[in-house]
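Our working data are protein records whose layout never changes between entries. Getting from the letters to the C-alpha cells is the skill we practise here. To make this concrete, we reproduce a full record directly below:
***
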Amino acid sequence: MILHYTILIIILFAGILLYFHIADKFNIIDKPNQRSSHNYITIRGGGIIFWLAGVLYGLQHLPDSMYFIIGLTLICGVSFWDDISSLPSRVRLMVHFVSISLVFYYMHIFQIVPWWAVIIAYVFFIGTLNAYNFMDGINGITSLYSLAVLLALQYVNIKVMAFTSTQGINYAIAACLVFLFFNYRKKAKCFAGDVGSMAIAFWVLTLLLQLMLRTDSMLWILFLAVYGVDSVCTIMHRLYLKQNIMEAHRLHFYQILANERGFSHRQISALYALLQAAICALLIYGYLHHWNTGILSICILIPLGLLYTLKFRKR
C-alpha cells in the first residue's frame, strides 16, 4: 500500500513538472489585473493534476468508473480550453450539464429521486462547481480547503459508514498534497486555473452525492458550508450593488482579507480550511449523536453569516 501511493505521488509530481514545461513553452500563464489578488505572472492550469489523479484512479476501476472518467474529462477539457481562450458561458454550462448527467445516470438518480429533486440537484451541482471556481483566487485556498473536506469524507467513509472506495478519496488527497507543494507558497509556482478548481469540485461533489445517497441525509452539504456562505452572501451583495455576478470582482470575504486587511494568502487559506474542518468535525459528531439536522444547520449557517458581515467593518 505504501509503495502504491509512493508511485502515485511520483507520477503526479512528474505530471505537473511536465505540464510546467508545456505551459512555459506555450505561454499558458496568468497575468494579474486590477481584480487579481496577486501581482506576478504565474503558470496557469496546474490544477490539471487533479484530472490526472482522477483518471489514474478511474482506469483501475473500470467499468464502474467509466462515467466518472468521462464526466471529469469533459469538464476539465472545457475548463482548460477556457483557461487558454475564453469560451461562451453557454458552452461551459452545456458541458457541465452533460458531465453531471453522466454521474447522475451512474448513481441512478433519475430512477430513485423525484423529478423536482433532480432539478434541485442540477442547480446545486452546477452552482457549487462555479462557486468553487470563483473562490479559487489566492494561493493554497482551493487545495487546502478541499483537503480538509476530503479528510472529513475519508473519516466518515472509514469510521462512520462506508459509501465509496477509500482509494478514490486517497487519490484526490494525494493530488491536493502535490499541488499544495507548488501552490501553497508566498510566491506560487502555479495556479489551479479553471481546470483545477472544476476538477476537484467535480470530484468532491461526486463523493458528497454518494454519501448523501448512502445515508439518506442532506446534512453533508454543510461539508462545503464555508465556501457556500461566502459565495451566496457575495452574490447577494453584488446583486444589491447591481453588478454582473458573472464578471470577476474583489468582493469575496477572502479577497477583502487579502487585498484590504493585509492578511497573507497562506493565512487566509489556512483559516478557511481550519474553519471548514471544525464544521465537518461538528457535523460528524452531531450525526453520530442524532442531533436535530435543522437545528445543527442553523447553528452553523448563522454564525458563518455573521462572520461574513465582518468584511463590511472598516479597519
Summary: The first helix runs from residue 2 to 25. Strands lie at 29-30, 42-43.
